[in-house]
UniProtKB/TrEMBL annotation:
Alphabetized InterPro entries for the sequence: Methyltransf_25 (IPR041698), SAM-dependent_MTases_sf (IPR029063)
Keyword Methyltransferase included in the entry's annotation: yes
Domain Methyltransferase: 61-150
One Pfam family linked to the record: Methyltransf_25
Coiled coil: none
Superkingdom classification of source: Bacteria
UniProt cross-references to CDD domains, sorted A to Z: AdoMet_MTases (cd02440)
Name by which UniProt lists this protein: Class I SAM-dependent methyltransferase
Keyword annotations of the record: Methyltransferase, Transferase
An individual GO BP term: methylation
Organism: Costertonia aggregata
Example of a GO MF term: methyltransferase activity
Length: 236
């Protein structure tokens, strides 16, 4: 199970074996819980940013890092040609059990089968880039599977609020040469820990600069209530 912590947890919930949630440990010295019922939420329980993103989808859609398939299921029910992609075998098994017609087990960087009108990266899907240094290559790969008139919809958060503020309104961020939005996570489920993985949270200005450098126009679609935002990227 340690190789697919998320997938096993999703399968347990899908199969009526829900007894506990996923624990996460991060390099920010924080322990948190991912409630499994939240990972199976319907459209009405999604945050407004996610609802907005789903309404902006067009054409053929690739749901990257689909998890239990909530976003894909909504789009499929609305008649979209939607493909759900995740590197977790368990997650994709859950998606199939829930009725999704098109699924792919793959890391996004290993996927280059075709081009799409919409690439969907929700629940901070841009985090899959891992680090700021890897962001450019990540965006260029997304561009390679995006149709010329297509767009990318993604949400993220500026986690600067997690650092101590000074009297001048600035923040005390560790001066170790890394971007403050780079976080290392470890998941634990039913006593087993998975391998640590890198995850990236982006402030909008940093995303906008990276998008411009890789040939995208970057639009701030809407902002949430707590440093989160929805962005749309389209090829220049």
């Amino acid at each position: 199970m340690a190789e697919d912590i998320l997938g096993q947890a999703l399968l347990d919930y899908q199969n009526g074996k829900y007894t506990e949630d996923i624990l996460t440990y991060s390099s920010l010295d924080e322990e948190d819980i991912i409630p499994l019922p939240y990972l199976f939420r319907g459209f009405e329980k999604m945050p407004p940013l996610e609802q907005k993103a789903l309404k902006l989808c067009k054409g053929e859609v690739l749901d990257i890092g689909c998890g239990a398939g909530n976003h894909s299921l909504y789009l499929q029910e609305k008649g979209y040609n939607i493909t759900a992609l995740d590197s977790s075998k368990g997650a994709i098994e859950v998606c199939t059990k829930r009725g999704l017609n098109k699924t792919v087990i793959s890391a996004i960087l290993d996927f280059d089968k075709k081009k799409y009108d919409t690439l969907l990266l929700l629940m901070n899907g841009i985090g899959l880039a891992g680090t700021l240094n890897q962001l450019k290559d990540f965006l260029l790969h997304l561009k390679s599977i995006l149709k010329p008139e297509g767009h990318i919809l993604l949400d993220s958060s500026d986690i600067i609020y997690m650092y101590d503020a000074d009297d001048d309104g600035g923040y005390w961020v560790p001066n170790d040469g890394s971007y403050y939005g780079e976080v290392e996570f470890t998941m634990q489920y039913k006593g087993e820990k998975g391998q640590p993985f890198e995850w990236l949270y982006l402030d909008f200005n940093t995303l906008q600069r990276a998008a411009s450098d890789t040939g995208f126009l970057c639009e701030l679609v809407s902002e949430g209530h707590h440093y989160d935002y929805l962005a749309k990227l389209a090829p220049k």
